[in-house]
Amino acid sequence: PKDVGKLKSECAAEAVQAMNPDLRGKIITLRDRVGQDTEHIFNEHFWEELDGVTNALDNVDARTYVDRRCVFFRKPLLDSGTLGTKGNTQVVIPNKTESYSSSQDPPEQSFPMCTLRSFPNRIEHTIAWAKDLFHSYFVGPPEVVNMYLTQPNYLGSALKQSGNEKQTLETLRDFLVTEKPTTFDDCVAWGRYQFEKQYNNAIQQLLYNFPKDSTTSSGVPFWSGPKRAPDPLKFDPTNPTHYTFVLAAANLHAFNYNINPKGIPRDHILKVLDDMIVPDFKPDPGVKIQADEKEPDPNAQPASFDDNAELQKISSSLPAPKSLAGFKLEP
């Protein structure tokens, strides 16, 4: 953290001299970016003086530029980089190896949303789904709430431009009014409802839309090939996976609201779960589910007059930001 905002060349020089004091006073740091506009600084004389080059660059254009110069002046290059949790290094030796620009990373893999939500068939799909769910529970809503509380006229200006007004207003209503927890018990109950929503209700709805014995228009079983028919889960607090899901959800939700979950025994959490009344779910005939990414998303409808009246109703149910002075969520 102490280096944030400083030049990389200066931080690197300081770090190297701390590791090897014999280098003190022997490192020259330059403050100019390397590129075509600085070839009067990084000129032929500069490149010919070098024994080798190592890159600590943050973009591909700069890397390919340095690579071209190293190929031209026949200098060895050590390139390294990170992307999220992945790291890579590449050693380039003149006349021996390919150069940095000779190969490219394959494009990042992404999956259609309908596959993640309704038809996962590989472990990568479930990981991508879980990451998306984590964001939509514990990151996105607290950020939206904080913007509502701090940006003047957020509902009138920023929200109108966001394009997903209904979803944002519903999030604000859920997180500030209808589902706002005051104790850790409330967070446990919230986690239990999320379990029901994701692993029972959503699966029941999916099987209502596409029963296990349904066929496509060409007479082929719908649940075939990579599509695997799911089964709804019945919550069982003695199942460690079920219990841990609720406990993790409760802890994270409590963190969002700065509620301290420390020291609450398992017996107490089990009692909260036991005392809860979880409403029975009935599939909704009006719900449409996208079965193929090539089809238009049936839930992306333009707003109607009725929607506007509903949005107005949600807006007026929200507490005024002034009434929540000093309150904020922790994404």
From TrEMBL:
Pfam families: UBA_E1_SCCH. Its EC number is 6.2.1.45. Keywords: ATP-binding, Ligase, Nucleotide-binding, Ubl conjugation pathway. It is an enzyme of class 6 (ligase). Residues 120-330 form the Ubiquitin-activating enzyme SCCH domain. Residues 284-331 are annotated as: Disordered. The active site is at C114. One of its GO terms (molecular function) is ubiquitin activating enzyme activity. Pathway: Protein modification; protein ubiquitination. Residues 284-297 have a biased composition (Basic and acidic residues). It comes from the Eukaryota. PROSITE patterns: UBIQUITIN_ACTIVAT_2. PANTHER family: UBIQUITIN-ACTIVATING ENZYME E1, UBIQUITIN-ACTIVATING ENZYME E1 C-TERMINAL DOMAIN-CONTAINING PROTEIN. Belongs to the ubiquitin-activating E1 family. This is E1 ubiquitin-activating protein. The gene is UBA1_2.
